[in-house]
Amino acid sequence: MKLRSIELALPHAAEAAAFLTGIWGMASAEVRGQTHYLRGSGPFPYLVALEESAEAYVRSTTFTCARERLEELKVSVTRANLPARPVTSDDPGGGRGIIVELAEGELLRFLTDTSEVAPIEGKDLPVKLTHIVFNATDAEATGTLIEQALGFRVSDRTKGMVFVRCNESHHSTAFARAGFSSLNHIAFEMADMDAVMRGIGRLRDHGMVPAWGPGRHGPGANVFAYFIAPFGPVIEFSTAVEKVPEDYQPGAPEDWTWPEGRIDQWGMSDKDFAGLRAAEEKFRHRRDWGPQPLNEEQA
Ligand SMILES: [Fe+2]
């Protein structure tokens, strides 16, 4: 199972695409109709889809998996009685699978038989997405749900977050104990720490400073720098998230505490709590489809 892409709808999609390609450091993959597809250096055909819309919302977060895993998901999602339907992807890379709505509206799409593309050179391109984090009213309940209904595993719990993995990477998603449901942030995997630092410099050239970072997290131990994108959401340069074994023992909030005044391993930067919180309100989840049985094959 791999996290592949996020599909957003928003006003002024072309301007958002111009920011992500011209400043953030992505490459344009393709424009189909009203949707801009942006890629990184890795083999995924795109990482971010931006569809023109009157309102901003998250259409889906997409994972790719083997056929057998998809069949398991159909069974567990049906058993959990979550709203879901079969899908055939019209996005670059194609594929077929299912889309599932979690308890607080989070829309996760699982595709198999997707195609990949040749990697491209570019030391300032993100390689891929490394995690998508959501805000939740009850992050604990969603952590339990995603384990039972999707076979993901909770890696760690902190005072603020429930971190969840779907492969050996410490987390591909997480649920923040926010008191509301929305997109928390999108994290891009950079090739190394130098690429993160160059990214911070590149944004500084355009008058943008991190809303938090650079720093190194506790759980996952990844390096981070968060920015508030001009088109609304919180986006992150990240690198070097830990890999964990199958039998990794989840930490509890009391295992992940900081000394007074610290909220990361380095302690070198301030966090713009209010700015980040406002940006996290921008993209909510919206389902524009009706549930259907998952055992019916799509034409
Ligand atoms: Fe992050």
Automatic annotation (TrEMBL):
Ranges where the VOC domain occurs: 128-240
**What InterPro entries does the record tag this protein with?**
Glyas_Bleomycin-R_OHBP_Dase (IPR029068), Glyas_Fos-R_dOase_dom (IPR004360), VOC_core (IPR037523)
Give the domain of life.
Bacteria
UniProt xrefs under PROSITE patterns: VOC
In Swiss-Prot or TrEMBL terms, this protein is called: VOC family protein
